[in-house]
Amino acid sequence: MIEREDLLSSVQREINDYGKSSSGSGSNKRMDLLLKESESARNSERMIDDQISIAIEARDALAAQRATFKAIRTKLNDISNRWKPTTKSHILFFLKKVLSFLGFP
Fold first, then answer.
1. What's the domain count of the chain?
2. pTM
């Protein structure tokens, strides 16, 4: 990330130096366009980095939810193993319905 920023800033400096040394309005327009393009690329890169961060946070939240539901399922299975067979079958049926609704196998 730091290397990228250094590279972009050095390119911008070179463009600025070239723009200062050249004369005429045509070359200034070209330099302005190059500067705008460079800034646009930098902004796009920042937005991509933001989207990647959001995706990583969402993945971590889903992993935590999965762990929570797995723990709930284990506890309910433990409780159902202690009860009568008919109650156990009702609990397991309910548990399977809830988990399938939530998207778990």
1. 1
2. 0.50
